[in-house]
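Technical annex, item 7. During the second reporting period the consortium partners agreed on a shared format for inverse folding records so that results from different sites could be compared directly. Each record opens with the tokenized structure and is followed by the designed sequence. A conforming record, contributed by the partner at site C, is shown below for reference.
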């Protein structure tokens, strides 16, 4: 699609320029006028081409796909022209509404990606233009148009979100160190993209009963909704991102493959452990610890249990032993729920200690906290002993796993 310049012409105005400016305001309003008519025509052609492409099996699908792609490109071109010729001019002339100002700001945000992140720019610009027109369609209140457009909109947005996530996945999985310095930012973008999808596309699917398969994630979606109101602290954000990853394992298994989802989980585990160590107030620390235990379970059950390829046979055997123990403990759930929760927590703590005790990150505080929990549960003995240090006898505590 042809890119248009947004360079501003000179500010000197003669009589002809004033007349042109007046005509511009009359002929190119925000949601109606010449651009609006053109968009409407292109949109109708697109919807028709889309319906033919997905429904008609009697024609050459390659030909139908070409027509659909051509209609989609013409539609995007009309939307892009609308932004430049209408919204941009209103912002420049100081006559724009808050909606138009926000739309222009988002346009600049997207186009700023073009030079250094062209692939992301390509998908995000399409996403932006579709969202912009969809807002206008919803305001119009034309139910038949909304119903027809929803089918195209959801289909195309699904594809765009998957492409955006796949682009991020490639960067996260890159082992050339090219993106190592900015991987934290990529993780943030992945979580933000997942959240954006669930709020705007998944919610729409659920609202219009788009797919019966969505019943499997309704519970997770309802849990996510609880984190869309109010101000979230660090603990809340980790929990929200944990839910997002859980949903992603059902919706984006190819565009956000297991190897990338695993790194995202490990990033959350790192943040959660650090938060437990840094939280000073005992009551708050207990809540954060509870969140960490839930995250460990999610990581092991929703992700590692589906993992097929392991880096070493030893890792595979270690996880197999863990999984067998987890299944054994799960049998207690129906007969003795309290004991089930206790034994499950002990299993998670011991397993996490093994993972973090030899890492480069200083987890000494949380390991001490973990061991105190194990002592409280009777899973570790606390032995008192004495030793001599610099000629002074002092009491120390030694713990050993029972």
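Designed sequence (site C submission):
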């Amino acid at each position: 699609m042809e890119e248009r310049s947004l360079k501003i012409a000179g500010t000197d105005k003669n009589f002809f320029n004033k007349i042109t400016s007046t005509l511009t305001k009359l002929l190119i309003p925000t949601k109606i006028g010449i651009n609006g008519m053109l968009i409407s025509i292109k949109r109708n052609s697109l919807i028709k081409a889309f319906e033919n492409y997905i429904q008609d099996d009697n024609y050459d699908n390659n030909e139908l796909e070409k027509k659909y792609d051509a209609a989609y490109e013409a539609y995007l071109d009309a939307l892009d022209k609308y932004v430049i010729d209408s919204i941009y001019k209103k912002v420049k002339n100081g006559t724009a509404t808050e909606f138009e100002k926000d739309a222009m700001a988002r346009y600049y945000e997207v186009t700023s990606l073009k030079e250094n992140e062209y692939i992301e720019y390509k998908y995000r610009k399409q996403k932006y233009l579709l969202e912009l027109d969809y807002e206008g369609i919803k305001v119009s209140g034309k139910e038949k148009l909304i119903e027809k457009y929803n089918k195209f909109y959801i289909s195309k947005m699904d594809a765009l979100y998957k492409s955006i996530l796949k682009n991020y996945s490639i960067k996260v999985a890159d082992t050339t160190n090219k993106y190592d310095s900015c991987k934290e930012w990529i993780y943030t973008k992945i979580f933000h993209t997942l959240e954006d999808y669930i709020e705007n596309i998944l919610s729409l699917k659920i609202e219009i009963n788009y797919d019966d398969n969505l019943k499997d994630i309704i519970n997770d979606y309802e849990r996510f909704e609880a984190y869309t109101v109010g101000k979230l602290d660090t603990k809340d954000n980790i929990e929200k991102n944990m839910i997002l990853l859980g949903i992603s394992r059902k919706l984006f298994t190819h565009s956000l493959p297991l190897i990338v989802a695993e790194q995202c989980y490990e990033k959350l585990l790192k943040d959660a452990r650090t938060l437990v160590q840094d939280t000073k107030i005992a009551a708050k620390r207990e809540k954060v610890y509870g969140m960490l235990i839930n995250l460990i379970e999610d990581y092991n059950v929703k992700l590692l249990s589906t993992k097929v390829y392991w880096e070493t046979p030893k890792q595979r055997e270690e996880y197999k032993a863990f999984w067998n123990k987890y299944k054994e403990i799960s049998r207690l759930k129906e007969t003795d729920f309290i004991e089930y929760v206790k034994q499950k927590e002990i299993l998670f703590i011991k397993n996490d200690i093994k993972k973090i005790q030899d890492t480069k990150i200083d987890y000494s505080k949380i390991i001490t906290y973990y061991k105190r929990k194990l002592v409280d549960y009777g899973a570790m003995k606390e032995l008192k002993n004495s030793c001599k240090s610099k000629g002074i006898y002092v009491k120390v505590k030694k713990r050993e796993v029972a």
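The chain has three domains: 1-141, 177-308, 310-402. The radius of gyration is 28 Å. All partners now use this format for quarterly exchanges.
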